Structures are given as C-alpha cells and as structure tokens.
C-alpha cells in the first residue's frame, strides 16, 4: 500500500502545478479512459474544497467537495479519480475515507450526497451511502444519486 500525503485546499490556495495535476488526472480518467467528451473543469471547481492524494511527487488520486447549498443542500463529493498506476491498492478507499472524515468534522451532523457512476454502487454503499434515485444517464454514463445520512 503506497504512502499518501493528503492536501486539502481551495482553488486559490493550490499551486498551479497541483491544480494542473488534478485536472490532468480527472481528464485522463473521465475524458480519455471513459471516452466521454465533456467540460470537466466547471464553475464548481471555484467554489469547493479539492482533496489531492500524493504519493511522493505523483498525484495518486483526487476529488472535490462542494459546500452545502452549492450543488446540493448537503456537502457533496465529486470528480473522484484515481490514477491507473495506483488502482487496486486501496488508494480510492483511503481518499473517500479522508473526504468523509473532513466532511464530518466541518459539517457536523450533515448528510453527504453524491452522483455516483452506477458501477461503483457497492463501493459507495460500503461507506454508508444509500441509493436515493433510479439509474440515470449523465454524459452517456449510468449514474445513481446516493445519500450518506
């Protein structure tokens, strides 16, 4: 299991190199690997917390957490991406655990809502998320809305 250093920051506090690494990782996963042409960088990036998981100088995984009332009434995890070089090593699980820990500390007693890719349903259920919608298409990929009470 690789050693990870977690970095939490608002966009203005990220270095240009760190934000570039996050966008490059997200594009490699969501645009290239999943063959889905869409605008990844969006206005939510400007109004959220970014969580980057570094292994040495390499970005292993990242996600963002939107504040309550920004995308949903609850804080919301999104743009969860793991580098292909780090998959199968528990990095994604550690990333989500770190994000939920922070959400619980910052927004004590608040639920978390996500729009998860449907194939990751059981992964997110293992963190206490439950489906609250049917399956729907987002950018041509099956998703499901989930809530962690």
From TrEMBL:
Pfam families xrefs: Acetyltransf_10
Record-linked PROSITE patterns: GNAT
Position of the signal peptide: none
InterPro entries recorded: Acyl_CoA_acyltransferase (IPR016181), GNAT_dom (IPR000182)
Ranges of residues in domain N-acetyltransferase: 9-149
GO MF annotation terms: acyltransferase activity, transferring groups other than amino-acyl groups
Lineage: superkingdom: Bacteria
Full protein name: N-acetyltransferase domain-containing protein
Organism of this sequence: Rhodoferax koreensis
């Amino acid at each position: 299991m690789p050693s990870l250093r977690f970095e939490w920051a608002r966009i203005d506090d990220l270095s240009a190199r760190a934000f570039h690494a996050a966008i490059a990782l997200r594009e490699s996963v969501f645009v290239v690997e999943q063959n889905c042409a869409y605008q990844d960088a969006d206005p939510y990036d400007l109004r959220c917390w970014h969580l980057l998981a570094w292994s040495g100088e390499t970005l292993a995984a990242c996600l963002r957490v939107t504040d309550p009332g920004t995308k949903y009434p609850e804080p919301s995890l999104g743009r969860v991406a793991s580098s292909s070089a780090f998959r199968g090593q528990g990095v994604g699980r550690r990333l989500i655990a770190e994000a939920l820990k922070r959400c619980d500390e910052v927004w004590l007693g608040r639920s978390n809502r996500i729009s998860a890719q449907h194939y990751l349903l059981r992964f997110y259920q293992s963190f206490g998320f439950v489906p609250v919608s049917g399956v729907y298409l987002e950018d041509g990929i099956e998703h499901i809305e989930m809530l962690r009470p």
